Amino acid sequence: MSQSTAPQSAPEHRTVLLRGGDVHSPADPFATAMVVERGHVAWVGSEGAADAFASGVDEVVDLEGALVTPAFTDAHVHTTATGLALTGLDLSGARTLSEALGLVRAFAKGRPAGDVLLGHGWDSARWPERRHPSRAELDGAAGGRALYLPRIDVHSAIVTTALLDLVPGVTAMTGYHPDAPLTGDAHHAVRAAAHGALPAAQRAAAQRAALDHAASLGIGSVHECGGPEISDEEDFTSLLALAAERPGPRVLGLWAEEVADEKDARRIRELGAIGAAGDLFVDGSLGSHTACLHRPYADDPHTGTAHLDAARIAAHVTACTEAGLQAGFHAIGDAAVTAVVDGIRAAAGTLGLDRIRAARHRVEHAEMLTPE
Ligand SMILES: [Zn+2]
Asked: What does the pLDDT look like over 64-117, one tens digit per residue?
């Protein structure tokens, strides 16, 4: 895009005419031009009408046919985890065991000793050596740092001694092997320890990476789904603080904790959340056969797991509505979605449908729905 610029005021105070594009807007479906004034869309219209603005603006941008849309919203984000994946070590391209160790060594080099190294994507079945790195080899490559390396399927992981040292009792847990990938309880414990031990600076770097990546994709607003079972308060409040003080996507926080009364609602607001919502689990996931179904799984003789029933859902929705908070739930299976619908219907019976509607409660995922 070409620009003609009259240098003066700061960018956020400039008036800009964008023209010669395809401006997507319900106000004028054939618009090709728009005027942005102090960061707000002031006018949208056609090329002919744009001439009238050309001399009065600070800047004219020729869009050269580009499409202009409103910024996107990503409505379900785990920002820190996304950033850690973006900034972590990707071993999926390693063709041999020694190449993988070389990548670990290069990744670790020069990093503070207290950093927790996170990586992903290794698969020893593809390596000519046909084995995973030993703990001693990993300890050496990571320079004594804590390192967590889940296998490509993320159901097992190899780790360094420094990370094991962060988990008291790990050697007695199921899934612990002195020199094989950790599975089961031992794996979950080291994963939690790795994430829990992240220094604040490393976590902030991950959050910045995730938000910058979102901005690069045209995402102007991110809904962070935090909660006591999936992140922690420090992670949540630090993200909201970081996003508030830098340019980039706006972050709206949803905190997944049940609300019973005004006191609970106040605590949610004190965290900076706009809703007691997001991943408030009504059920689990299809992949692990824990999504809650009306009929048994075809490949497993049970119907999954229910964490919340309609009565608790109704209590949460009622309390949130009365407190002016958005309520929301993670519900994947059809029985979980039915429980949410029944709970909301019961809350509407108490408070009236209009109040429930006005609070704009939400459901995350909703992957299976009954016809009803
Ligand atoms: Zn989620």
From this structure: 999 998 899 999 999 998 999 899 999 999 999 999 999 999 999 989 888 899
CB atoms within 10 A of CB 1: 11
**Ligand 1 center from residue 76 Cα (angstroms):** 6
Instruction: Write phi, then psi, for 169 (nearest 5 degrees).
Output: 80, 5
Distance 174 CA to ligand 1 centre (A): 27
Is residue 239 a contact partner of residue 209, using CB atoms and an 8 Å limit? no
Contact 222, 252 (CB under 8 A): yes
CA 301 / ligand 1 centre spacing (Å):
26
**236 CA to middle of ligand 1, Å?**
14
Are 231 and 223 a contacting pair, CB within 8 Å?
A: no
Under 8 Å between Cβ of 200 and 206: no
The closest of 347, 308, 311 to 329, measured between CA atoms, is 308
**pLDDT digit string (tens) for 5-46?**
444 556 668 899 999 999 988 888 889 999 999 888 999 999
CB within 8 Å of 219: residues ≥ 6 apart: 71, 72, 73, 74, 249
Pairing relationship of beta strands 33-37 and 15-19 according to DSSP bridges: antiparallel
Domains of the chain with bracketed CATH: 2-70 (2.30.40.10), 79-196 (3.10.310.70), 256-365 (3.20.20.140)
Q: Where are the alpha helices (DSSP H) in 119-261?
A: 135-141, 161-164, 184-196, 200-216, 233-244
